[in-house]
Inverse folding.
């Protein structure tokens, strides 16, 4: 039998209650998949991610492992949908510490879904996924004006676009950021 968490609190200003978020100790994680196979390691990574404030491009960070497993080269997996509400649960704390990995990873998962780069959302995960996407969009929009550098500005603007369903807008921001990096 699946176990779900009834709610998550992200910030006092934003009600981040999610409906039926898959609990981290639910055995169903082993039936979900990520880029490297069964997602049994994702609950531990999500638990550690809440306290790991290193950027996701650092190979020794928990965020690097989450990015690699959940949004590998732009493709997503069933575990990506189950993980997204947990990512949003830690997003506000990371934004307060000038880290955007939780919100940006969530946005990239949603962008990949919109672009058809993964499986359909499992029916039982859909309500919490959709609620978390809406919460993530609110967080992204609220934090765009607080961007602390050009990377965070691009990540938060692209996140707001992707989480709002604007594929073209998100791609324009991400592609412009890629061109500037060259």
């Amino acid at each position: 039998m699946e176990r779900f968490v009834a709610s998550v609190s992200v910030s006092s200003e934003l009600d981040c209650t999610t409906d039926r978020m898959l609990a981290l100790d639910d055995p169903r994680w082993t039936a979900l998949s990520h880029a490297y196979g069964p997602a049994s390691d994702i609950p531990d990574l999500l638990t550690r991610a809440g306290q790991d404030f290193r950027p996701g491009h650092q190979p020794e960070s928990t965020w690097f492992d989450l990015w690699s497993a959940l949004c590998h080269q732009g493709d997503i997996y069933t575990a990506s949908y189950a993980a997204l509400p947990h990512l949003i649960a830690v997003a506000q704390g990371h934004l307060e510490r000038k880290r955007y990995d939780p919100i940006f990873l969530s946005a990239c998962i949603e962008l990949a879904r919109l672009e058809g780069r993964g499986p359909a959302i499992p029916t039982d995960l859909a309500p919490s996924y959709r609620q978390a996407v809406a919460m993530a969009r609110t967080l992204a929009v609220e934090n765009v004006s607080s961007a602390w550098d050009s990377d965070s500005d691009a990540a938060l603007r692209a996140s707001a676009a992707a989480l709002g369903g604007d594929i073209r807008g998100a791609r324009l921001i991400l592609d412009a950021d890629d061109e500037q990096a060259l």
Summary: The chain has one domain: 4-181. DSSP finds seven helices and six strands in the chain.
